[in-house]
Amino acid sequence: MSSDLVIHYEYPLSERIRTLLRLEDLYHRTNYFSLKTDAQEHHIALVSLFEILDVAARADLKSDLMQELERQKQVLEALRDNPAVSEEALSSVLADIEPLLDFSRCPARSGKNSEVMNG
Fold it and tell me: What is the pLDDT of residues 7-37, one digit of tens each?
């Protein structure tokens, strides 16, 4: 077997996976263009950010992501007493997950109603 193994994904992926891949791509695009200095590149970053808000506003996606985050939190919580797991690292990851589980803090929920979005 060659060491240059390439993973090849066959279409069709599920709609959920395609949506998550799209969000990942939009996130990378937003991050890339926000670090640039040209106004047009900043415009692209903002458009990408608004696309993220639109995609993330889908109720079915929110529900799936919240369920997955809760599942991951439970799996990680079960590792608390494991001596092979760094308590500091585990606490850090759990602290990062907790605010995401608070549905009312979701940027997509309040983004469309903000004064910035409506001019």
Answer: 776 776 788 888 888 999 999 999 999 999 9
Range of the domain at 95: 59-109
Is 69 contained in some domain? yes
* Both tokens assigned to 17: 């996976």
Looking at the domain assignment, is residue 10 inside a domain?
no
Q: Give the whole-angstrom CA distance, residue 11 versus residue 68.
A: 23
At residue 2 the predicted structure's pLDDT band, cuts being 50, 70 and 90, is low
The tokens for 87 are 């308590």
Query: How far is C-alpha 25 from the geometric centre of its chain's CA atoms?
Result: 10
107 within 8 A of 56, measured Cβ to Cβ: yes
